Amino acid sequence: MKNKILVAALFMYTAVVLSGCVKTNLDANPTNTLLETNVFSDRALMLSVLANFYISVNYGQQNGDYGSYHLLDEASIMYGPATTTDNERQIPRDFYRVYDYGLVRRMNQFLKGINSSSAKTVLLESDRLDMEAQCRFLRAWYYFCMVRSLGGMPLVGDEIFDYQSESDIPKMQIPRATEAATYRYIINQCEAAATNLSANKTTNGAVANRWAALMLKARAAVYAASTAKYGSSITPSVRTAGGEAGIPADSAANFYRLAFETAERVINQSPYVLQKDASNPGLAFYRATSVKAGNTEVIWAFDRLAPNQVTQFTNFVMPYSQRDYSEGNGLGAVLNLVEAFENKDGSDPAIKTTNADGSYVFYNSVEDPFTVKDARLWGTVIWPNAPYRNVAVSLQAGQLNRSGSSYVIKAGAVGTKDASGELITSVNGPISNSDNYVNKTGFLVRKFLDETANAGLNPRFSEMWMPKFRISEAYLIAAEAGFELGDRITAAVQYINTVRSRGNVQPLTAGTLTFAKIVNEYRVEFAFEDHRFWDLKRWRLAHTLWNGTLNNPTAQIYSLYPYKVVSPGDANNGKWAFIKQISYKRATTPLYFPLTNYYGTIDNSWITNNPKLVINPLQ
After folding, report:
1. Could you tell me the CA-to-CA distances from 43 to 75, 117, 135, 198, 420 in Å, in that order?
2. Cα–chain-centroid distance for residue 245?
3. Are residues 308 and 6 in contact, defined by beta-carbon separation less than 8 angstroms?
4. d(Cα 282, Cα 505) in Å, to the nearest integer?
5. 399 pairs with which residues across the strands?
6. Rounded-to-integer distance, Cα 12 and Cα 56, Å
7. Short-list 422, 406, 448, 433, CA closest to 561
8. What ranges make up the beta strands (E) of 180-324?
């Protein structure tokens, strides 16, 4: 279905919108516009409209825009000079804000049309109900993306407003619902959609099924629950008097209970399972997120199919040394993320670079600090000498040469070698300069990097998808909700350990499972998957972790540069040492998330059209 619906989507979008405007002012039917009656008497046209809705709701951080990863503590853009302006220091208040009631109207027109007598004539009833349910799910997803950025907003239900005279205006001006009511509406819509959606997997997860609807229900419930609990305890002043922003603390338990039960339903009844391979857990994790063939984990994704839907993520992000086209090394994973991955033996995950006396810590292999970590790290980033397309990726900042009783650093331009032919600095870097195509953090991004030959080549580029829901999220929602409820700790431990086991890290117990462990588990499992920003918001951690303070380890972005010891006759010759340093790109711009940013702004233009809208707190 996906192939067919993508082709005609944009055409139909325009056609359906325009069809509502032609009846009163034109005597003759236009020849370049399809009327609603035409659309809802043709199955292919109905599918094309539905396809457009899928394209319209691809909100948030996503691999169609590699630059969208720059402002968080996962990766930095590597092109250009160091960031010195507040534009990149401060995460914008309206970051990923969603507000499009035109889309809601079009969806409601579709829901009306799919229930028309003409649609019922041409569609099998099961087909019609499935298409209706898909639309309800996508509308719920839209509301979810809006409420997580703005709080409670007007709920128009299935209403289609038509302006006839000025007397119609007041009934169109609907006040904002409370934040809690908006989440409940999303939850109810998901449950209703799940009833009529297929329980079977869909090709590449491109079309929503029952489990996608239940995952949205579970995620909405846990977002509401955590906002109620932590919003009330940590940021009690960030709310409106009417509840449009902020959820009462006494609502938390019910939302957590709903999240737990729904997540368990997906875990126990859906056909999705975690992808694991004990012989190569790192590769298995990469395939779980970034390979469509044989995938058992992705429930719903924004899928791509050439030539209409492709991404240049691989072109910009792949190692420059292995570039397909003209770009490369455009995005560098940061040390902050790498060190969030635990060591398999449970030891301190911070990478040791110096001893107590200040001398270097030497490693026999440049990969040694990373192979001891959670296996999921391999599937998330490319560390020095790790392979891409089966070729080792060179990342070397320079050499360490013995000089008397100490070592001195020798660094050069990219690709330089010494007189003996030993590499000084890799063509990939890392180097702290403003050059393009040079890494500046010591790590590249692997997740969503396409291994397919020529995936970075113009004009076809990559068909890499963007997963929205994976089964592992159901496990972590159940773990989080079970932990917060307090009476389901045993289950919470079981669920979080199921996810952790794919990384071969130490299992947790009822005594070692903490809120901090849950926060970190989301971070490493879903890096680059549009979770980190929203999770820190709902837990009310963003303003304390990203406080804009220089040298604050959670706000400052760090890099790790590898140096090879080149000193024949020295005991450490051929070994590696590392230097941890503040990231060149963000040396003076630590992450900053002010308290105001927990809720986006309500635009004056919206209020002009609807004076019943109240503004958000601290606006």
Report:
1. 44, 13, 15, 18, 70
2. 23
3. yes
4. 12
5. 410, 564
6. 13
7. 433
8. 298-302
Nearest to 590 by CA among 559, 618, 548: 548
User: Each residue of 261-291: b (16+ CB within 10 Å) or e?
Assistant: ebbbbbbeebebebbbeeeebbebbbbbbbb
Cβ contact 175:154 at 8 Å = yes
Q: How many CA atoms lie within 13 A of 102 on its CB side?
A: 9
- Nearest CA to 73 out of 590, 600, 594 is that of 590
Angle at 50 between CA 48 and CA 53, to 5 degrees: 115
Q: Quote the longest CA-to-CA distance of the chain.
A: 94
Look-up of token digits 């009327």: 35
From its phi and psi, is residue 8 left (phi > 0), alpha (psi between -120 and 50) or beta? alpha
pLDDT in tens, 123-180: 999 999 999 999 999 999 999 999 999 999 999 999 998 888 888 888 889 999 999 9
Confidence (pTM)? 0.93
* Rounded Cα distance, 66 and 399, in Å: 31
Q: What is the 3-state secondary structure (H, E, C) of 99-145?
A: CCHHHHHHHHHHHHHHCCHHHHHHCCHHHHHHHHHHHHHHHHHHHHH
pLDDT in tens, 182-209: 999 999 999 999 999 999 999 999 999 9
Choose among 343, 287, 395: nearest CA to 524: 343
Which helix H or strand E contains 193, and what residues bound it?
A: helix 179-196
